[in-house]
Amino acid sequence: MSTVSSLSAALCLSLLSYWIVGFSRRRNLPYPPGPRGLPIIGNVLSMPKSHLWLKASEWGKDHGNLVFVQCFGSPLLFLNSYEDANELLDKRSTKYSSRPSLVMANELERWDWLATTTPYNDALRKYRTYIHRFFQSPEVLDYKPLQIRETHLLLNALLDDPKDYAKHVRRLPGAVIMMNVYGHEVTNENDPVIHLADETIRIVGDVVQFPILDLIPWLKYIPEWFPGGGFHKVAREARKLSYAVRNEAHEQTKERMANGDERESMTSVLVSENILEDGTILNEGYISAAAAATYLGGADTSATTIMTFILAIPKYPEIQRRGQEEIDAIIGCNRLPSFEDKEQLPYVRAICTEVLRWESILPLIPPHFTTEDDEYKGYFIPKGTTVFANAWEMAHNPTIYPEPHDFKPERWLGPHQPLRPEKYAFGFGRRLCPGQNWAENWSVFIAVASLLAAFDFEKARDSSGRFIVPNDSYDTSFDTWPLKVQNYTKVIEGCILDSKFSRCGFWSFLSSPSGDGVVE
Ligand code: HEM
């Protein structure tokens, strides 16, 4: 079949689905407002290549907080306000908790086992139960000492090699998660398990190259030799990776267990509990999928949060000073912060909260998908609508947060605080991030408090001694068009800090081999 006839067939199919959606619409209720689209293709031409959240905010200015668009008959709804997201995604989560089907990612590359892309089904409920059990509170795995140890390793690495700060920061959550999930110890920067997982994150991000397949799913049938069939090769490579990332570290954990060399982890506990008399493991596929999804969901997001702190702090020396004064007054100079200090460090906690708001780590919450028709505020929301909560717009609404682009921890002090970013930054309803507690309450806090305690951050200078303006653009790493799940990863390129290790003389014990954070 020629390309032209393929496209005509695809357009006919799209027209049909457009017609079906229109037909099933309840005649007495309109769709929510939105920009006018063209026949058949709808709003496809208005969809930006990146930063869809900004476009959704812009549409919101003209059409209100609910914005409805269509792409080739597929309905998309943007929720620009927390109230609407809370009402639909939290309170009506029975209807709003699935995920849209992704042709390239799920069908061809076989990432369908990944929690973030799985529809709301039994497998997802299993994954979430597992992750919750081990990550929701530190009681099961007692991950706090490990977080402290890895944070101290980060401080040491920054001391030795401040220029590579991004690499050191990235290691921190990755190493803790690998230990929690597999009992795998990350000993150096060339760790093969981390390398495989990071490669996976990159490849999943590359799905963006083939948006057309999600728009016109029928195109997946064109053969590899046919013009435009290059996606088959990419999908083949990705399938290998999908298999490897789910199974390799899992198998290594089983090997360690067989050799009596296991360290307690999510995988080792679940495998032991599910082993049958004949040696097979009940639910093994779910166990390996949940474990792999944990790293993929938690490493980049947590690292980006800490990087955002490092980006903010040299721009606001006054905030750095105030945070350090609080730490010095409460903790003094003889030890580094511990989790027990958290209650007594309100300003440091306020910095962590502002980090979560200031540069929304996931500006568009990964899309939810409706599994039933719904009515809301007099509008009709059809089954099969892809729903995006626009966390960026929620976090930068000037009526809630005056001067929203400024980094102001003070917002989070005192009795009358605005809407807290935890309410939307970790998503909604039945898809709420299962790593929220691990990240927010433990990992990010201890990293921020320890970095403040140990370092003075300031902008680097050029050879003439002038401050270099940090490059604060974020990389978008995971981006599935037209769904545009944008997940910032690497934050700052080029210079950002001269970490002056002048604070309290902590260097004397940090650079000691134990790095245990207590001055002898
Ligand atoms: C500051 C760090 C983090 C942020 C900002 C964050 C944010 C999010 C968001 C917005 C979602 C989508 C929720 C939704 O669809 O409504 C999500 C899902 C998810 N997160 Fe996190 N996350 C973070 C850390 C973590 C950590 C540490 C883990 C693992 C321990 C993790 C594992 C997951 C998983 C597995 C999902 C998929 C859940 C599902 O689709 O049902 N995340 N996260």
From TrEMBL:
GO MF entry, a single one: heme binding
Q: Which residues does heme bind?
A: C433
InterPro entries of this UniProt entry?
Answer: Cyt_P450, Cyt_P450_CS, Cyt_P450_E_grp-I, Cyt_P450_sf, Cytochrome_P450_fung
Concerning PROSITE patterns, the annotation shows: CYTOCHROME_P450
Q: What is this protein called?
A: Cytochrome P450
One Pfam family recorded for the sequence: p450
UniProt record similarity statement: Belongs to the cytochrome P450 family.
Required cofactors, per record? heme
Q: Per UniProt, which keywords does this protein have?
A: Heme, Iron, Metal-binding, Monooxygenase, Oxidoreductase
Annotated pathway:
Secondary metabolite biosynthesis
User: The organism's lineage?
Assistant: Eukaryota, Fungi, Dikarya, Basidiomycota, Agaricomycotina
